[in-house]
Amino acid sequence: MSMSYRVESQFLRGPELTLDRGKINVFEHLYEAAVSPGTNPVINYDCEYPKHEFLSYLVLFKNLVLHGSNLGNLEWLNPIRTSTSTAHWESLEAVYACSDGIWPIFFAIVNRQKYTGSLRNACYRVVDRNGNASKLYYFALDLQFLRKRVWTDGMIYLLPKDSFEQLVDDVGNKLEEWISFVPVRSLARIEVSPQDFPFINSVRVQHLSRPGQAINVVKVDARLYDNYVGVYELDPEITITILSDKERLLFSAAGFPIISALPESEEKYFLQQINAHISFVTGNGKRADQLILQIDDQSLTARRVS
Q1: What mean pLDDT is predicted for residues 52-69?
Q2: By mean pLDDT, which of 37-51, 90-104, 252-266, 278-292 is the weakest?
């Protein structure tokens, strides 16, 4: 097992959006032509730039969020609850949208009539030590469905942001996801195909969960978390930090947002956002001296350093 494996390698770094005057003029013309009629038209996208660049431009410079769907003829989007996620912010009765130009394409092109497995995906905005921001993504589908035709054409809806509020996770991290508890009328829409998704060849195979198999979350004594809190080293360049807010065990690595660890037993925890498990190994006492991270088909051991 190579200890040079990095948690970051599970994520895809989004392409940088570069803008010049010519590109801005094209995007502005497309936008104005689409929203001016007020009739939710399908945008006639007849330019050379990738559609995800246009969508990224819209969420950056217009008061919009985006919603991806297999359905192509929606005018009003109504609050519904479709997720079975255990994360409270993912299972509300609401209209869901996002402030990202790539993420909604994934939802638009996964054929939900044929794909009934677990849908793992994430989008994070991260900032490096120099203050430079970038987007990181994670997409995974169950292996058995990748042998079938799970991709389809879909639609991205441009929604006014006025009634939306930005979601935060259990530990207060702002997400790229937004919700509205009232119906939202689409301003315009744009057709997308699998070829418009820049990570179409980078979707991961999912091994750790199976369709219909839920993670069995158990209740443990939160005082136990004190035995696990600390810093663990995978290699000299990457560490994992385990924290506790006295009610939950929290996982942090490589500058990513803090993730709440869901207990499967007193020693084993599930990291839902990255579809991984961590287990703690104790020595002679109760205090853990090692952490085992299971992600995809790899099992990685990190030793406690503080």
Answers
A1: 98
A2: 252-266
Number of Cα atoms under 13 Å in the Cβ half of residue 153? 5
What range defines the domain where residue 129 resides?
Answer: 7-206
Tell me if 281 sits within 8 A of 268, measured CB to CB. Answer: no
Its pTM surpasses 0.85: no
How many whole angstroms separate alpha carbon 119 and alpha carbon 77?
21
**91 domain residue, yes or no:** yes
Q: How many domains does the chain have?
A: 2
